[in-house]
Design a protein that fits this description.
With about 700 residues, the protein is an alpha+beta fold. It has helices spanning about 1-25, 160-165, 290-310, 370-375, 375-385, 405-425, 450-455, 535-540, 600-610, 630-650, 675-680, and strands at about 30, 40, 45, 50-70, 70-95, 100-125, 130-155, 175-200, 215-220, 225-235, 240, 245-255, 265-280, 315-320, 325-335, 340, 390-395, 435-440, 460-465, 475-485, 490-495, 500-510, 510-520, 525, 550-560, 565-590, 620-625, 655-665, 685-690. The strands form 5 sheets. Strands 15, 20, 22, 23, 25, 26, 27, 28 and 29 form a 9-stranded mixed β-sheet that branches.
């Protein structure tokens, strides 16, 4: 019923839209007013445009379709993706100096989509063992929809419109526009579907047709396949000839109603395309251009005269100090946490884990521990491809409480391990190199006394025969910048009356490094938020051989009467190069409530420490914990972890200088403790080594 109402309203809107178009196509006596419309015999003719457009789309489908018709007990399809294309034409009527456009679009769009899921809900008789065993199957549901769609919307040339309202000519040069539209479509040219199943395990089982793939159902939907949606578009127009415009566009389609009557099915679409349009009925303003230019010049002179008469001097003081910082050469290791975490009762790999099987280089990752961890699948896959003899074991776990029966929990833990295996196989890694095991809970679990323990135990553990597979990511000899004294940027005003905003701009050698705007001022003292991150920008711009390097700062005060007050200041720069190289060796992540170093981690520490610490180095060892548990206990645990690493380093070479051994406890939390990965990365030891530069 809702879909029928939306369709009826859509058609009414389209009829009204066309009536507006044709009612304004009556031509009579020429006259042009300052709104850009053309008049003839008191009949207004609005400017309009006609064009074509097309491009590619990326679809995200959400569904509730059973693997087998009318049978939901084994599972159902939930999400799918696809790529297609679209092409059509548009017709627009322009208002308010062509900055607001009523826009009608008619187009044909291909919307294919593929949904894939894995199930293990049936047992089959193995011809090898002559016993019934659980089979794992891959289910694939493919649809091919081809829609004819109508989209009625409003297009806004926002910056040009802002230029009209504010008289800021610069805004008129920005070609960006936005559009919001209501779309209604019907699958008229293609609405076929195919539902297949494929044996994954066991490998000795075949369907009666002698194949490992079987078609469950296929055909063409006989019911109505229609959809209504909202479209949000951003684009930029570029003039390529007189009255001819080319515009790249990006849009997002949000579906409002299910598109298939038989199932709950909805599709959102991301579109990228380009349009070519031609303007009509635009007034020729060439005859008036000279008068307009003269008027602009007179207006400019009047504004300048007014500004001279009421000049402002509201900046009482701008306080700053010298930007004094040090450049240090740093080498840092980022430990690999060999766990992949899952949502409750789910075996689907979470979206946080990055997947790039085309090109990946761990040296291009940012110096960010958590972001590096989210690339764990990329890292392991690339290392396995580079080391063909390396094998791994994936051990799936549940939290021990996700399902009522042990069998269901064991099945879930196996599915989790297989989902990681399938992802690695998709990189091109032979499945013979990957062993899959499962447990109810991990061998080293987090205590279920804490609710966070359940979250941390829902995981797949990664074990390997090659220590290099899980070695830390190493970033060598990058530059890091730190302040020698705090930066101070404060503007003091005499009054905040009639101030619209205050803008601070910082630049070095003509290149902008910061722009900050303060609105709705409550105080005459403005504390500017200039952060340490600008140091890297400054260091990349300044000339180390020039002793007179400065940061140019400009304060601009914008008043409600359109006046602007400006003042500039030069801030000296002082950059020093550290006499030490710093090595931050963060090599292992401890399990919950553990401080012992495994033999594998000892080998890893020995490999890195022997190459990173010299007899002239000063070393600080810092242990840390997460927030779970009592504060005093965590303090002791973090110190115990630090001592374990310090003692092992002394066995490597007792002559190494260890300056401090520190336990942070839970006083200084390193990462977000709302996530399992954040808590695990708090359970670590940092070995910081300062070595004099020779």
């Amino acid at each position: 019923m809702l879909k029928m109402k939306i369709k009826k309203n859509t058609y009414k809107l389209l009829i009204i839209f066309n009536l507006i178009i044709f009612s304004n196509l009556v031509k009579s006596q020429e006259n042009i007013d300052n709104s850009g419309f053309e008049y003839k015999k008191d009949k207004v003719i609005f400017p309009m445009n006609i064009g074509v457009f097309g491009g590619m789309n990326n679809l995200k489908s959400f569904a509730n379709i059973p693997f087998f018709p009318q049978e939901y007990s084994c599972g159902n399809y939930t999400e799918g993706t696809g790529n297609g294309m679209f092409i059509g034409f548009n017709y627009g009527i322009e208002f308010y100096n062509s900055n607001i456009i009523a826009d009608l679009r008619v187009f044909n769009e291909k919307r294919p989509s593929t949904l894939e899921e894995v199930s293990n809900c049936y047992e089959v008789l193995s011809p090898v063992t002559n016993e019934y065993i659980i089979s794992t199957r891959k289910h694939t549901y493919t649809v091919n929809f081809s829609y004819l769609a109508l989209d009625l919307g409003i297009k806004l040339r926002l910056f040009k419109l802002a230029s009209e309202l504010s008289n800021i000519e610069l805004l008129n040069q920005i070609p960006i526009y936005t559009r919001i539209g209501f779309e209604s479509g019907q699958a008229m040219f293609d609405k076929t579907y195919t539902n297949t199943e494929e044996f994954i395990t066991p490998e000795e089982i075949y369907y009666p047709n002698g194949e490992r793939i079987n078609t469950v159902e296929d055909g063409e939907y006989d019911e109505t396949i229609s959809s209504e949606a909202l479209n949000f578009t951003i684009g930029a127009e570029f003039k390529i000839a007189k009255n001819v415009w080319l515009a790249p566009e990006f849009s997002y389609r949000y579906e409002l109603t299910p598109s298939i009557e038989r199932y709950d099915w909805r599709t959102d679409i991301l579109r990228a395309g380009i349009s070519l349009s031609v303007d009509f009925n635009k007034p020729d303003l060439n005859k008036e251009s000279e008068k307009i230019e003269e008027k602009k010049e007179l207006d400019t002179l009047k504004v300048e005269e007014v500004k001279k008469e009421i000049a402002r001097n509201n900046i009482d003081k701008f306080e700053f100090n010298e930007i004094d910082f040090t450049e240090t050469i740093v080498t840092q290791t980022f430990p690999i946490l060999p766990y992949i975490f899952f949502d409750s009762t789910s075996s689907k790999i979470r979206n946080i884990y990055k997947f790039d099987n085309i090109a990946f280089d761990e040296q291009e990752l940012d110096n960010n521990t958590i972001e590096i961890y989210y690339n764990i699948l990329n890292i392991i896959a690339k290392r396995m491809l580079d080391n063909p003899k390396t094998t791994i074991t994936l051990i799936g776990n549940s939290d021990g409480n996700e399902f009522e029966s042990l069998e269901d929990r064991m099945n879930l833990s196996l599915e989790r391990a297989n989902s990681i295996k399938n992802r690695l196989v998709s990189y091109g890694i032979s499945k013979e190199r990957i062993t899959v095991e499962n447990r109810e809970i991990p061998k080293l679990p987090t205590s279920s006394r804490y609710i966070e323990g359940f979250q941390e135990n829902r995981r797949v553990d990664i074990e390997t025969n090659n220590i290099d597979l899980l070695k830390p990511v190493l970033h060598s000899d990058f530059l890091e910048y730190s302040l020698n004294k705090a930066m101070k940027f404060e503007t003091k005003l005499k009054s905040t009356s009639d101030i619209e905003k205050v803008k601070l701009t910082l630049s070095v050698n003509g290149k902008n490094i910061l722009t900050e705007t303060k609105n709705n001022l409550k105080s005459t003292i403005i504390i500017h938020n200039v952060e340490e991150s600008i140091l890297e920008k400054i260091a990349n711009i300044i000339d180390d051989n020039n002793p007179t390097n400065v940061v140019k700062s400009e304060i601009e005060i914008y008043y409600t009467d359109k006046q602007i007050e400006k003042k500039s200041f030069d801030i000296p720069i002082k950059k020093e190069k550290s006499s030490f190289e710093v090595g931050r060796l963060n090599l292992i992540v401890f399990d919950f409530d553990k401080s012992e170093i495994s033999n594998t981690n000892k080998s890893m520490i020995k490999q890195f420490i022997s190459n990173s610490i010299s007899l002239s180095s000063n070393t600080t060892i810092t242990g840390s914990t997460d927030l779970l548990g009592e504060k005093d206990y965590n303090k002791t645990l973090s110190l115990s972890r630090a001592n374990e690493v310090a003692n092992y380093i002394n066995t490597i070479n007792p002559n190494f200088k260890i300056k401090d051994i520190i336990g942070l406890g839970s006083d200084q939390i390193l990462f977000d403790n709302n996530t399992p990965e954040g808590r695990f990365y708090c359970r670590t030891v940092l070995v910081e080594v300062k070595t004099p530069i020779k």
